[in-house]
Each structure stands twice: as structure tokens, then as C-alpha cells.
Amino acid sequence: MAAMTDLPDSVLLEIFAYLPVRDRIRISRVCHHWKRLVDDRCLWRHVDLTLYTMRPKVMWHLLRRYMASRLYSLRMGGYLFSGSQAPQLSPALLRALGDKCPNLKRLCLHVADLSAVPITSLPPTLQTLELHSCEISMVWLLREQDPRVLPRLECLVLDRVPAFRDEHLQGLPRFRALRSLVLGGTYRVTETGLDASLQQLSYLQRLEVLGCTLPADSTLRAISRHLRGVRKLRLTVGGLSAAGLALLEGMPALESLCLQGPLITPDMPSPAQIIASCLTMPRLRALELQGLGWEGQEAERVLCQGLPHCVVIVRPCPKESLDWWM
Length: 326
Description:
This protein has an eleven-stranded parallel beta sheet with strand order 1-2-3-5-7-8-9-10-11-12-13, with helices on one face. A two-stranded parallel ribbon has the order 4-6. The chain is of the alpha/beta class. Helix 4 (56-67) packs parallel to helix 5, helix 7 runs parallel beside helix 8 and helix 10 packs parallel to helix 11. Among the domains are: 1-43, Monooxygenase (Up-down Bundle); 45-178, Leucine-rich repeat, LRR (right-handed beta-alpha superhelix). Helix 4 links the parallel strand 1 (46-48) and strand 2. The chain contains twelve helices and 13 strands. Mean pLDDT is 87; it is low at 322-326. Helices cover 29% and strands 17% of the residues.
């Protein structure tokens, strides 16, 4: 049986890539060979630090010693619920990411208190910004802000960001590179705010509205008015009716549609009504139904037969979607 020392470097690198950052650094002390491998660029392109309560001193060491120009995507936790003594994300640290990591394209922040962090501290190279259960300053994302902030931002994910509201949504059109927007549990966004904002965001290619207080019909109405070029849609079905779904009929660019539970209403479109609407969408190639209670039933067979040009996926609602309603 071959020992670890007999494995080629390419296989060892594959194994090391599955290790958490802390263990990856520990194994670098085993021998000079492993130390050299742990220093390989490919191991530091995608870094996940959400497993740790990372002290600032350790974070600065990782930034200088391992990440720097190698880093492409980073996930970090801000320990919002860990007490006042927990380390917090500072403007200086975020600015250092921009200065020392010129190839950083994706930043995912979890449970972070960013209320005292200016948005100007974020790395200007970012193409994707994800905020999960974060607190943000009320002056973030407003249209009056410096237009040079995040000039390359293409994808913005706002997942349970309680401060996010209509004023922030209406400030997003200043991100001219923005093509993908995910709103998850942003309960302060209103129907009026969504409609007014999408009018200015007509260039969006992907939109997800999940677990918000917005009725699905009103969301689809705003989409059909302003996002004629949208390619991917995902939304929860609360308040969805057959008449609301019909608003998407004839959408010229729509390629992927996902309707997601768990809230089902008596007016929910039937499989036959869904087929009728989807057949009017010339480019639709993927239909996904999650958590509608249809998985494993006759409805899936009917949908597959009625939409032979589409990949039809019928499955239970993912756990993270259930969390939005708890």
C-alpha cells in the first residue's frame, strides 16, 4: 500500500485543498516538502474562514504570508452574535484586502457588523459581493455615494440584511456592471420600491427574490414591465396565481425559471397552467419547482411531457429557504 509520501504532488494538493485553513497550516510543519506544497498558489485562490473566530493578528498573518496576490475568493465571518469582545471586521482590514489582493473578485461576509465600516473600504476589484445576516450602515449603497465605489460589481447577494430597504435598492443602478441581484429575506423592500428600482435596472440578467414580504404576483408584474432581457429568475411562490405567472408569457430572453415554496396558496397555478405559460417563452430551457409538494407525484411526469424542450426539476425545498420563514 502506498504511503502519503509516495503520492504525486498533484494528488497531495487535491487532498490539501479539502482541509480547513488551520489544518492546512499545521501540516506545513510536517516536512519541507509539505511546507512547499502548502505554499502553492492554487491552495489560496479560494479561502473559507467562516469556521473560525479569527483574531485580527492571525488574519493579518494569513493576508501577508499566504493570500496576497493569490487570493480570488474569500469567505469571512464577522461574529456579530459572539459578544462585544469578539473580533470585528475593521475598515483597515478590508482596505488591506484591496491593497494586497489585487486579484480578489469575490467576497462573502457572514454575520458581520459593518455599520461602522464605510463601503469605500471594500476592495474595488470585487465582481461579487455577498452579505449574509450582516448589519450595514444606512448610508451604504445609496445613489449619492461616490460612483467610483465597486466599479466592477457584477453580482450582489443580500441575504437577511435587515437594514436594506427601498432607498438602498434605488441606489443600485449606479453599479453599471451589475447583472445579477439576489434579495433574500429583505423584508423592508416594498412593491413600490421594487418597481421603481427595476425600471432603472433593466440590464439585469439574473434576479432572485426569496423569502421577502413581496407577493409573487407584484414581483412578476415589475419584472414583466422592466426586465424584458432577464435570463434567470428565482422567486418564492407566496401570493402567486395563474394570472401572475401569465405576466411572464412571451418573455423573450428567459432561459431558467425557478418557483420555490414553502408557502402554497389556493390560487397557485396548476401544472397545466405552468406548462401553458412556459410554452410561450421561446428560450426557456430549465424549469425548477422546489417545495411545492409535487415531488414524486404525477405532476412531474405531466410537466416533463408538456415541456419536452426543458430540463424539469421537481424537488423538496432546500433548508436555507425554510429558514427565511422561521
